[in-house]
Q: What sequence folds into this?
Protein backbone atom coordinates (compact mmCIF):
# COMPACT_ATOMS: atom_id res chain seq x y z
CA UNK A 1 0.00 0.00 0.00
CA UNK A 2 1.47 3.34 -1.05
CA UNK A 3 1.73 6.60 0.90
CA UNK A 4 -1.30 8.04 -0.93
CA UNK A 5 -3.52 5.14 0.19
CA UNK A 6 -2.28 5.52 3.74
CA UNK A 7 -3.20 9.20 3.70
CA UNK A 8 -6.65 8.47 2.23
CA UNK A 9 -7.33 5.80 4.86
CA UNK A 10 -6.21 8.15 7.63
CA UNK A 11 -8.51 10.88 6.33
CA UNK A 12 -11.44 8.48 6.12
CA UNK A 13 -10.81 7.34 9.68
CA UNK A 14 -10.59 10.94 10.86
CA UNK A 15 -13.85 11.77 9.05
CA UNK A 16 -15.58 8.75 10.55
CA UNK A 17 -14.53 9.84 14.04
CA UNK A 18 -15.75 13.37 13.38
CA UNK A 19 -19.12 12.10 12.17
CA UNK A 20 -19.42 9.86 15.20
CA UNK A 21 -18.60 12.73 17.55
CA UNK A 22 -21.42 14.67 15.95
CA UNK A 23 -23.98 12.01 16.87
CA UNK A 24 -25.95 12.67 20.03
CA UNK A 25 -27.88 10.55 22.47
CA UNK A 26 -31.12 11.22 24.33
CA UNK A 27 -32.56 9.77 27.54
CA UNK A 28 -36.30 10.04 28.28
CA UNK A 29 -37.47 9.51 31.85
CA UNK A 30 -40.14 10.65 34.26
CA UNK A 31 -38.44 9.89 37.59
CA UNK A 32 -37.77 12.09 40.60
CA UNK A 33 -34.35 13.34 41.74
CA UNK A 34 -32.89 10.02 42.92
CA UNK A 35 -34.15 8.15 39.84
CA UNK A 36 -32.64 10.79 37.57
CA UNK A 37 -29.24 10.72 39.30
CA UNK A 38 -29.07 6.94 38.98
CA UNK A 39 -29.28 7.26 35.19
CA UNK A 40 -26.10 9.39 35.03
CA UNK A 41 -23.73 6.38 34.88
CA UNK A 42 -25.77 5.13 31.90
CA UNK A 43 -25.40 8.52 30.20
CA UNK A 44 -21.62 8.35 30.72
CA UNK A 45 -21.46 4.79 29.40
CA UNK A 46 -23.55 5.72 26.33
CA UNK A 47 -21.15 8.55 25.53
CA UNK A 48 -18.07 6.39 25.84
CA UNK A 49 -19.25 3.14 24.27
CA UNK A 50 -21.09 4.73 21.33
CA UNK A 51 -18.60 7.58 20.91
CA UNK A 52 -21.36 10.17 21.11
CA UNK A 53 -20.67 13.88 20.88
CA UNK A 54 -23.23 14.62 23.60
CA UNK A 55 -26.12 13.22 25.63
CA UNK A 56 -29.28 15.18 26.47
CA UNK A 57 -32.05 14.31 28.88
CA UNK A 58 -35.79 14.90 28.88
CA UNK A 59 -37.51 14.69 32.25
CA UNK A 60 -38.77 16.83 35.10
CA UNK A 61 -36.59 19.92 34.94
CA UNK A 62 -37.04 20.66 38.65
CA UNK A 63 -34.74 17.65 39.14
CA UNK A 64 -32.57 17.40 36.02
CA UNK A 65 -32.15 21.15 35.55
CA UNK A 66 -28.98 21.06 37.68
CA UNK A 67 -27.25 18.52 35.38
CA UNK A 68 -25.82 20.64 32.52
CA UNK A 69 -22.44 22.07 33.47
CA UNK A 70 -22.12 19.73 36.45
CA UNK A 71 -22.53 16.26 34.90
CA UNK A 72 -22.00 14.39 31.64
CA UNK A 73 -25.49 15.49 30.53
CA UNK A 74 -25.13 18.33 28.03
CA UNK A 75 -28.69 19.63 27.81
CA UNK A 76 -32.12 19.07 29.33
CA UNK A 77 -35.73 19.67 28.32
CA UNK A 78 -39.03 19.44 30.15
CA UNK A 79 -41.03 16.27 29.63
CA UNK A 80 -44.20 18.37 29.84
CA UNK A 81 -43.18 20.67 26.99
CA UNK A 82 -42.58 18.01 24.32
CA UNK A 83 -46.03 16.52 23.96
CA UNK A 84 -44.78 12.98 24.62
CA UNK A 85 -48.22 11.93 25.89
CA UNK A 86 -49.25 11.54 22.23
CA UNK A 87 -46.87 8.60 21.91
CA UNK A 88 -48.96 6.50 24.33
CA UNK A 89 -51.78 6.33 21.77
CA UNK A 90 -52.68 3.03 20.13
CA UNK A 91 -49.85 2.22 17.70
CA UNK A 92 -52.23 0.86 15.06
CA UNK A 93 -53.94 4.23 14.64
CA UNK A 94 -51.02 6.53 15.47
CA UNK A 95 -50.07 9.11 12.86
CA UNK A 96 -48.39 12.52 12.69
CA UNK A 97 -48.96 15.27 10.14
CA UNK A 98 -45.97 16.46 8.14
CA UNK A 99 -43.99 19.07 10.06
CA UNK A 100 -45.41 18.09 13.46
CA UNK A 101 -43.29 19.69 16.23
CA UNK A 102 -42.75 16.29 17.85
CA UNK A 103 -40.86 15.08 14.78
CA UNK A 104 -38.31 17.87 14.93
CA UNK A 105 -37.72 17.15 18.63
CA UNK A 106 -35.70 14.05 17.70
CA UNK A 107 -33.91 15.24 14.57
CA UNK A 108 -30.52 15.60 16.31
CA UNK A 109 -30.38 12.16 17.94
CA UNK A 110 -28.91 8.91 16.68
CA UNK A 111 -29.37 7.03 19.98
CA UNK A 112 -32.52 7.31 22.10
CA UNK A 113 -33.03 5.50 25.39
CA UNK A 114 -36.48 5.72 26.95
CA UNK A 115 -37.64 4.65 30.39
CA UNK A 116 -41.21 5.47 29.33
CA UNK A 117 -43.48 2.71 28.08
CA UNK A 118 -42.70 -0.97 27.64
CA UNK A 119 -40.57 -2.84 25.08
CA UNK A 120 -42.71 -3.41 21.99
CA UNK A 121 -45.53 -1.31 23.47
CA UNK A 122 -47.41 1.64 22.03
CA UNK A 123 -44.95 4.28 23.26
CA UNK A 124 -41.88 2.54 21.85
CA UNK A 125 -43.46 1.77 18.48
CA UNK A 126 -44.85 5.29 18.12
CA UNK A 127 -41.50 6.76 19.14
CA UNK A 128 -39.71 4.70 16.49
CA UNK A 129 -42.23 5.86 13.87
CA UNK A 130 -41.78 9.51 14.91
CA UNK A 131 -37.99 9.34 14.96
CA UNK A 132 -37.84 7.69 11.54
CA UNK A 133 -39.84 10.56 10.07
CA UNK A 134 -36.72 12.70 10.36
CA UNK A 135 -33.76 10.31 10.56
CA UNK A 136 -32.75 6.74 11.30
CA UNK A 137 -31.93 6.23 14.97
CA UNK A 138 -31.52 3.47 17.52
CA UNK A 139 -34.42 3.41 20.01
CA UNK A 140 -34.19 1.32 23.18
CA UNK A 141 -36.74 0.95 25.98
CA UNK A 142 -35.22 0.17 29.38
CA UNK A 143 -36.93 -0.84 32.59
CA UNK A 144 -36.39 1.40 35.62
CA UNK A 145 -36.89 -1.43 38.12
CA UNK A 146 -34.96 -4.71 38.05
CA UNK A 147 -36.53 -8.14 38.60
CA UNK A 148 -37.22 -9.05 42.24
CA UNK A 149 -34.31 -11.51 42.28
CA UNK A 150 -31.77 -9.04 40.81
CA UNK A 151 -28.78 -8.65 43.16
CA UNK A 152 -26.69 -5.99 41.40
CA UNK A 153 -26.91 -2.24 41.68
CA UNK A 154 -29.48 -0.39 39.60
CA UNK A 155 -26.79 1.49 37.62
CA UNK A 156 -25.33 -1.83 36.49
CA UNK A 157 -28.77 -3.08 35.52
CA UNK A 158 -29.29 -0.06 33.25
CA UNK A 159 -25.90 -0.60 31.59
CA UNK A 160 -26.64 -4.30 31.07
CA UNK A 161 -29.92 -3.48 29.35
CA UNK A 162 -28.25 -0.90 27.12
CA UNK A 163 -25.54 -3.36 26.07
CA UNK A 164 -28.09 -6.09 25.41
CA UNK A 165 -30.19 -3.91 23.12
CA UNK A 166 -27.57 -1.74 21.44
CA UNK A 167 -24.90 -4.28 20.62
CA UNK A 168 -22.25 -1.89 21.91
CA UNK A 169 -19.05 -2.88 23.69
CA UNK A 170 -19.40 -5.63 26.24
CA UNK A 171 -19.44 -4.75 29.92
CA UNK A 172 -16.81 -7.43 30.56
CA UNK A 173 -14.05 -4.81 30.48
CA UNK A 174 -15.91 -2.41 32.77
CA UNK A 175 -15.62 -2.74 36.52
CA UNK A 176 -18.80 -2.18 38.47
CA UNK A 177 -16.99 0.56 40.38
CA UNK A 178 -16.49 2.43 37.08
CA UNK A 179 -20.24 3.03 36.98
CA UNK A 180 -20.33 4.36 40.54
CA UNK A 181 -17.86 7.23 40.64
CA UNK A 182 -18.37 10.92 41.33
CA UNK A 183 -21.20 11.91 39.00
CA UNK A 184 -21.87 15.55 39.86
CA UNK A 185 -19.15 18.19 40.08
CA UNK A 186 -20.14 21.47 41.73
CA UNK A 187 -19.22 24.73 40.05
CA UNK A 188 -17.22 27.49 41.70
CA UNK A 189 -20.49 29.40 42.09
CA UNK A 190 -22.01 26.42 43.91
CA UNK A 191 -19.19 26.37 46.44
CA UNK A 192 -19.48 30.12 46.96
CA UNK A 193 -23.23 29.76 47.54
CA UNK A 194 -22.64 27.04 50.12
CA UNK A 195 -20.00 29.05 51.95
CA UNK A 196 -22.36 32.02 52.03
CA UNK A 197 -25.06 29.90 53.68
CA UNK A 198 -22.61 28.66 56.31
CA UNK A 199 -21.36 32.19 56.97
CA UNK A 200 -24.92 33.42 57.44
CA UNK A 201 -25.43 30.66 60.02
CA UNK A 202 -22.34 31.87 61.86
CA UNK A 203 -20.46 28.62 61.37
CA UNK A 204 -16.69 28.72 61.60
CA UNK A 205 -15.03 26.96 58.69
CA UNK A 206 -12.34 25.79 61.08
CA UNK A 207 -14.93 23.29 62.31
CA UNK A 208 -16.32 20.39 60.28
CA UNK A 209 -19.92 20.70 59.07
CA UNK A 210 -22.28 17.75 58.62
CA UNK A 211 -25.61 18.23 56.82
CA UNK A 212 -28.48 16.14 58.20
CA UNK A 213 -31.55 15.61 56.02
CA UNK A 214 -34.18 13.75 58.10
CA UNK A 215 -36.81 13.51 55.39
CA UNK A 216 -37.71 11.39 52.37
CA UNK A 217 -40.45 11.03 49.81
CA UNK A 218 -42.21 8.41 51.96
CA UNK A 219 -42.70 8.31 55.73
CA UNK A 220 -41.84 4.58 55.79
CA UNK A 221 -38.32 5.42 54.55
CA UNK A 222 -37.68 7.93 57.34
CA UNK A 223 -35.53 6.82 60.28
CA UNK A 224 -37.17 8.08 63.47
CA UNK A 225 -36.33 11.76 64.01
CA UNK A 226 -35.01 11.15 67.55
CA UNK A 227 -32.10 9.26 65.95
CA UNK A 228 -31.04 12.35 64.01
CA UNK A 229 -31.46 14.60 67.07
CA UNK A 230 -29.20 12.25 69.06
CA UNK A 231 -26.64 12.29 66.27
CA UNK A 232 -26.59 16.10 66.17
CA UNK A 233 -25.96 16.23 69.94
CA UNK A 234 -23.08 13.77 69.72
CA UNK A 235 -21.50 15.59 66.78
CA UNK A 236 -21.70 18.88 68.63
CA UNK A 237 -19.97 17.31 71.65
CA UNK A 238 -17.11 16.35 69.33
CA UNK A 239 -16.74 19.84 67.85
CA UNK A 240 -18.67 19.10 64.65
CA UNK A 241 -21.45 21.41 63.50
CA UNK A 242 -24.76 19.86 62.43
CA UNK A 243 -26.93 21.66 59.87
CA UNK A 244 -30.43 20.27 59.38
CA UNK A 245 -31.90 20.54 55.90
CA UNK A 246 -35.69 20.41 55.61
CA UNK A 247 -38.17 21.03 52.85
CA UNK A 248 -41.94 21.43 52.49
CA UNK A 249 -42.55 17.70 53.09
CA UNK A 250 -40.71 17.77 56.42
CA UNK A 251 -42.38 21.04 57.45
CA UNK A 252 -45.77 19.39 56.98
CA UNK A 253 -44.84 16.00 58.41
CA UNK A 254 -43.02 17.10 61.57
CA UNK A 255 -45.15 20.02 62.79
CA UNK A 256 -44.16 23.03 64.89
CA UNK A 257 -43.04 21.31 68.10
CA UNK A 258 -40.71 18.87 66.37
CA UNK A 259 -39.31 21.56 64.09
CA UNK A 260 -38.41 23.58 67.20
CA UNK A 261 -36.58 20.54 68.57
CA UNK A 262 -34.62 20.32 65.33
CA UNK A 263 -33.69 24.00 65.54
CA UNK A 264 -32.50 23.47 69.12
CA UNK A 265 -30.34 20.49 68.08
CA UNK A 266 -28.49 22.35 65.32
CA UNK A 267 -28.67 25.03 62.68
CA UNK A 268 -31.54 24.58 60.22
CA UNK A 269 -32.06 25.59 56.60
CA UNK A 270 -35.41 25.09 54.94
CA UNK A 271 -37.07 25.36 51.54
CA UNK A 272 -33.84 25.80 49.56
CA UNK A 273 -33.93 25.40 45.80
CA UNK A 274 -32.20 22.32 44.42
CA UNK A 275 -29.32 24.46 43.10
CA UNK A 276 -28.93 25.96 46.58
CA UNK A 277 -28.86 22.48 48.09
CA UNK A 278 -26.04 21.60 45.68
CA UNK A 279 -24.20 24.64 46.98
CA UNK A 280 -24.72 23.75 50.63
CA UNK A 281 -23.57 20.17 50.13
CA UNK A 282 -20.53 21.25 48.12
CA UNK A 283 -19.35 23.35 51.10
CA UNK A 284 -20.02 20.67 53.74
CA UNK A 285 -17.73 17.93 55.09
CA UNK A 286 -20.28 15.16 55.57
CA UNK A 287 -23.91 14.16 55.15
CA UNK A 288 -26.40 11.85 56.88
CA UNK A 289 -29.89 11.09 55.63
CA UNK A 290 -32.56 8.59 54.66
CA UNK A 291 -33.16 6.87 51.33
CA UNK A 292 -34.04 10.08 49.48
CA UNK A 293 -33.21 12.13 46.43
CA UNK A 294 -31.06 14.50 48.50
CA UNK A 295 -29.02 11.53 49.76
CA UNK A 296 -28.41 10.48 46.14
CA UNK A 297 -27.34 14.06 45.42
CA UNK A 298 -24.87 14.10 48.34
CA UNK A 299 -23.32 10.81 47.26
CA UNK A 300 -23.06 11.86 43.61
CA UNK A 301 -21.29 15.07 44.67
CA UNK A 302 -18.55 12.98 46.27
CA UNK A 303 -19.46 14.04 49.80
CA UNK A 304 -18.71 11.76 52.75
CA UNK A 305 -22.24 10.32 52.82
CA UNK A 306 -24.01 7.96 55.24
CA UNK A 307 -27.52 6.81 54.34
CA UNK A 308 -29.87 4.85 56.60
CA UNK A 309 -32.08 2.33 54.81
CA UNK A 310 -35.21 0.68 56.17
CA UNK A 311 -37.59 -1.13 53.79
CA UNK A 312 -35.57 -0.73 50.58
CA UNK A 313 -32.44 -2.68 49.60
CA UNK A 314 -29.29 -0.50 49.57
CA UNK A 315 -27.32 -3.00 47.48
CA UNK A 316 -29.73 -2.27 44.62
CA UNK A 317 -30.99 1.26 45.28
CA UNK A 318 -28.17 2.85 47.30
CA UNK A 319 -26.71 6.23 46.31
CA UNK A 320 -23.83 6.33 43.84
CA UNK A 321 -20.57 7.91 44.93
CA UNK A 322 -16.97 7.27 45.95
CA UNK A 323 -17.57 7.92 49.66
CA UNK A 324 -20.99 6.42 50.36
CA UNK A 325 -21.74 4.20 53.34
CA UNK A 326 -25.16 2.60 53.83
CA UNK A 327 -26.55 1.28 57.10
CA UNK A 328 -29.54 -1.06 57.03
CA UNK A 329 -32.11 -1.06 59.82
CA UNK A 330 -34.59 -3.88 59.34
CA UNK A 331 -36.38 -3.43 62.66
CA UNK A 332 -40.14 -3.18 62.43
CA UNK A 333 -39.95 0.12 64.33
CA UNK A 334 -37.46 1.73 61.91
CA UNK A 335 -39.63 4.81 61.46
CA UNK A 336 -41.52 4.61 64.75
CA UNK A 337 -38.91 4.57 67.52
CA UNK A 338 -35.20 5.33 68.16
CA UNK A 339 -32.73 2.53 67.47
CA UNK A 340 -29.57 2.83 69.57
CA UNK A 341 -27.64 0.08 67.82
CA UNK A 342 -28.10 1.68 64.42
CA UNK A 343 -27.26 5.11 65.87
CA UNK A 344 -23.79 3.86 66.76
CA UNK A 345 -23.30 2.28 63.33
CA UNK A 346 -24.21 5.55 61.62
CA UNK A 347 -21.86 7.58 63.84
CA UNK A 348 -18.98 5.15 63.26
CA UNK A 349 -19.55 5.17 59.50
CA UNK A 350 -19.63 8.97 59.42
CA UNK A 351 -16.50 9.47 61.52
CA UNK A 352 -14.60 6.71 59.68
A:
Amino acid sequence: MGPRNNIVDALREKLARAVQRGERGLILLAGALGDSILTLPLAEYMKESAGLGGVDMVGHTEYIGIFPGRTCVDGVASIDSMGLAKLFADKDSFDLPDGAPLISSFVNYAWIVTFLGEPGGNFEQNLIFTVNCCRSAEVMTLSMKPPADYRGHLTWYYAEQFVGQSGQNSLSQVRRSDLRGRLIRPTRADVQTGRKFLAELGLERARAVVVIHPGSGGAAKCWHIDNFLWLADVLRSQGIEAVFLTGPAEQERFGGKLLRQISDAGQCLTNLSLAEVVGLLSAADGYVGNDSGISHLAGALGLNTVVVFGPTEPAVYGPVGPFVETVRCEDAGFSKAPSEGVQKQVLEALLK
Summary: The chain has two domains: 3-179, 188-351. The chain has 14 helices and eleven strands. Residues 14-19 have pLDDT under 50 and may be disordered.
